[in-house]
Every structure is written in structure tokens, then in C-alpha cells.
Amino acid sequence: MSSPNLESRPRPHSLGDLFLSFTWLALQGFGGVMAIVQRELVENKRWLTNEEFLEDWAVAQIMPGPNVVNIALMIGGRYFGLRGALVALCGMLAAPLVLVLFMTLLYSHFADHPGVAGALRGMSAVAAGMIIAAGLKLAPALKRNPLPLPFSIAAAIACFVFVALLRWPLGYALLGLGTLSCTLAYRRLKP
Predict the structure, then answer these.
(1) Alpha carbon distance 42, 30 (integer Å)
(2) Where are the alpha helices (DSSP H) in 32-148?
(3) What is the largest CA-CA distance in the chain?
(4) Contact 56, 75 (CB under 8 A)
(5) Angle between helices 149-160 and 170-189 (to 10 degrees)
(6) Cα first-last separation, the chain
(7) How many CB atoms lie within 10 A of CB 109?
(8) CB proximity list for 23: less than 8 A, separation 6 or greater
(9) pLDDT tens-place string over residues 47-74
(10) pLDDT in tens, 94-141
């Protein structure tokens, strides 16, 4: 897949811009961040195309650690090397760390309040909805996937069954389905 030259499209103007952009993403992303990251990096800032975002997100999924932190490291590294990766990482972690510590103090005082328990249950439903919405928004990019759409859908369903219903560890499901998918894609792309 050919992507436009990195120099000919929008990019972070400086390390400060990179830091502030990822700080802003981190502050918006409590619970379900994929939809927010995709909208901000692809649609608003246009630092990535939709296809590049999907490729980076796929890599971020299989790397250890939080997916959005992995994406921040990849994008920071792409534009500014190691310094950019570290600045993007700091942007993702600094403000949320302070907020989480503050919220932990609050939660320790109000954890037994029924309103707090209800709010947490409601937030989990919102997060699930955001993940589904992001998946639906990114689905059109599957048309350019080297694997047929029915296979992609079957792999997604199989992963859901393995993890949600059979309670397999996600790593096993990704290892099996990812190896199969990568092998088939490699065979279809091989000249």
C-alpha cells in the first residue's frame, strides 16, 4: 500500500504540539479511546490516513501495553524519532496520572455511595458503545484488505466466541487467528 509522503501532509509542528495533542487525547479518552483517537488523528489533524490508522492500531493491539500508548509511541517516533516517541508517551500519561491519583482519593471516600456504583455501571455501557461505533466507522477500510470480507467477519466472530464465550485468554485467540490471518494475507500479497 502506498501512502502519501509524510512531508506533503499535515504533521505535528513541534514536540510541544505532539505533547499537547496526546495530552488532549488522553484527557478525552476515559473508558473507550479508540473512536476519539481515530477521529482526532485521522479526521481532525489528518496525521494519518484511515488505512494507516488501521495498520498502526493492528500493530498496537498485539504489542504489550495499552493500545493507545503504543499508537502514541509509533506516531511520535514516526515524526520525531525517539524524542517524539518519549514526548508522545509523556503527553499520554502525565495529565491522566494526576487525574487518576486525584480520583482515587475521591473514590476511597465515596466508594460505598450507591450513586457512584450506578455511575460506574453506566460508564461501562458507554465505553462498549464507543468501541462498537469505532468498529463500524472503520469497517469500510476492510474493502481494501487483502483478505476477503467474509473471512474478516468470520475471524472477528471467532475471536468474540473464543474470548467472550469460551473465556480463552486474548493472547491465545490473537496468536491463533492472527497467525492464520497473516499467513493468508502474505500468500495473497506475495507476487
Answers:
(1) 19
(2) 34-38, 50-62, 67-110, 114-138
(3) 63
(4) yes
(5) 170
(6) 14
(7) 9
(8) 91, 92, 94, 95
(9) 988 888 888 988 988 888 888 899 999 9
(10) 988 898 899 889 888 887 888 888 888 888 888 788 778 877 887 887
